[in-house]
Amino acid sequence: MITQLPNTQWDAKAYQQFSRLRQQPVNELLDRVELANPKRIYDLGCGTGIATQLLAKRWPRAQLRGIDSSAQMLDEARCLPIKASWTQCDLLDWKPEQPADLLLAAAVLHFIDGHKKLLPSLLGHLNPGGCLAAHMPDWRDAPWYRLMLDTLNEDGVGGRPLGTAQLRQRMAARPLLSLEDYYRLLAPLTESLDIWETEQLQVIDGKSPVYDWVKVSALRPVMQSLDSAEQARFIYHYLMRVHAHYPQEGNGHTLFPFKRIFIVAKV
After folding, report:
1. What pLDDT is recorded for position 6?
2. Helical H runs in 136-176?
3. Does residue 106 contact residue 54 with C-beta atoms inside 8 Å?
């Protein structure tokens, strides 16, 4: 079964705050894509178009389409000075009108459960010789994510949990597979397959930069599911935990290690 976290309003302006750092893994991913002249490219979960701009620069003659479920994100993307079309659509409901030569999925597939069905399905939308290129934040063992789970479990009134048991169970789930399992899943379906993992020491700035980073992505389903009083308690206690674990350095920067899984699969 393929499921996706509930859709909530994306804060497109806040998402752009760390656009330079969000672009770096896209560059790393595209460096491994060996396609000379793809004619039809889809940027799945394109958001504000951070990756779409890179695609347009590398393959200016390609038919480029951005797909995203957020109207707010697409409003920002449509302001970009690039030749592309934009479609608002839930990725689970998306099917291309014609097969693609490249499907890019930058920081989107980790929101969707059921990778054993999802990824082979995406490969089925490619022309022969086409490529699926994806990177996914691997945050389930990250300290900031564990602190989020601790806050949900412990920081309600009287030490009771925050939110519903369903919310806490969903946030504790692990939709990503191991690198080995991705290989075993995709190798029989591909001509070439490149899978790797990185941990980048991100250096970020701001009063609460770790919170600013995660509030626009991983914390969205949490904030959607809590009422206003619970939201206030969550933010207060979560910020205390995050500031203690990620203190500012002497130079004012905050160090934020971040893991990602990369996949380049050619059919």
Report:
1. 40
2. 143-154, 165-172
3. no
The tokens of 6 are what?
A: 């509930």
Ordered strands of the 192-204 beta sheet: 85-88, 63-68, 40-44, 100-106, 126-137, 254-266, 192-204
Q: For tokens 């692990």, what's the residue?
A: 174
Give per-residue pLDDT as tens, 5-64. Answer: 344 454 444 445 567 888 899 999 999 999 999 999 999 999 999 999 999 999 999 999
The CA distances from residue 37 to 26, 44, 50, in Å, are: 19, 19, 21
Type of residue found at 146? R
Kindly state which CATH superfamily the domain 10-138+176-203+258-267 is placed in.
Answer: Vaccinia Virus protein VP39 (3.40.50.150)
How, if at all, do strands 100-106 and 40-44 pair? Answer: parallel
The residues spanned by each domain of the chain are 10-138+176-203+258-267, 139-173+206-251
Q: What global pTM score does this model have?
A: 0.89
The span from the CA of 167 to the CA of 5, in Å, is: 10
Give me the chain's average pLDDT, please: 92
Which tokens sit at 24?
């770096």
234 torsion bin: left (phi>0), alpha (psi -120 to 50), beta (else): alpha
Q: Which amino acid is at 233?
A: R
Exposure b/e, 80-109, CB count within 10 A at least 16 = b: beeebebeeeebeebeeeeebbbbbbbbbb
